[in-house]
Description:
eight-stranded antiparallel sheet; 16 strands; repeat; single chain; ACT_dom; ACT domain-containing protein ACR; alpha+beta; ACR1-12; 12 helices; amino acid binding; disordered C terminus; 30% strand
Amino acid sequence: xxxxxxxxxxxxxxxxxxxxxxxxxxxxxxxxxxxxxxxxxxxxxxxxxxxxxxxxxxxxxxxxxxxxxxxxxxxxxxxxxxxxxxxxxxxxxxxxxxxxxxxxxxxxxxxxxxxxxxxxxxxxxxxxxxxxxxxxxxxxxxxxxxxxxxxxxxxxxxxxxxxxxxxxxxxxxxxxxxxxxxxxxxxxxxxxxxxxxxxxxxxxxxxxxxxxxxxxxxxxxxxxxxxxxxxxxxxxxxxxxxxxxxxxxxxxxxxxxxxxxxxxxxxxxxxxxxxxxxxxxxxxxxxxxxxxxxxxxxxxxxxxxxxxxxxxxxxxxxxxxxxxxxxxxxxxxxxxxxxxxxxxxxxxxxxxxxxxxxxxxxxxxxxxxxxxxxxxxxxxxxxxxxxxxxxxxxxxxxxxxxxxxxxxxxxxxxxxxxxxxxxxxxxxxxxxxxxxxxxxxxx
Length: 443
């Protein structure tokens, strides 16, 4: 019946996410509030949109009671400023104000993606790009991470004959590319590599894909000593409320919340409540979670597995290294030549972000010496002279200025697992609503 169709449309419109962006409530950050009917994965989608815009999330409050869901984020740009660009604000509202997942970049449509994992070594990424250049594959976009002696890489390739797979010759060419890359990633131990070709449309998000590749590869990773500033992760049980409580304390950095929420989501946990707070360069995150079937974590083995996966997810993007930015006209074989220059000067690429816009290549590399320690300045200078001093520049990761709470960072209790997750949830909600500027003090 026609009136029933109109009623269903009304219900849908009433339950669509409502996005409010406010610059007046907080003096130091822009508030992004998302209210919606509950939907699996909505938290990850919201955090993903903010992370892709390179926004810093200084505070956050997450609540999902009954059938309703509310997120509040305190965000700034990478320089610690409020959001004033109308195009950015409009994009956030449009991306989060629908039931659709965040839009994929149009430049990646119709491409082929290669997913690679394997034991890392000096020059491996250079060899991968050399094979692709030799096979006349144009790299449009690529992301590479290394962690615990393993490499994960996602490469998006241009080329109708590669993407179509419409003939036996096309299939044979793809098979030859995979065979040559598979030989590079084979390794000489018990943890060989793997490579697969998939349509770019099947890669939901490059960073999520890297997390998934490395999570699947986690058990193969060799044992490495914990870094000096390793994240502290606690997984506790709150049986009275039917929650498991995850507390994370670590150094703050860009996309930290995305990495944690992505890991929880991919491990099939649902965040019902949560808080995020930063002070100086430290971050505390707390989440009340259950499995997708509604049950809390019950076994010690599952708690330990979640702990290990969260620590690994945080460490992957926390690697130290010299940040080199390459901006130059794109041409065939560019990546192969640049990464070969790194290898010839004893530099290890621990992270890479490759992108092309039109005829311009804009790439970022994080490099260390072959042992994973700080790169020698002479090696950096030699690489820059070869590539071009004006094209390859040393830069620092832009970070917002340190802003401490009125109590000062020294007055914060930064112990993990000290029972913070076991306080009464109503008091936690009220406290964080006040901290986020959504209610006034009653004192």
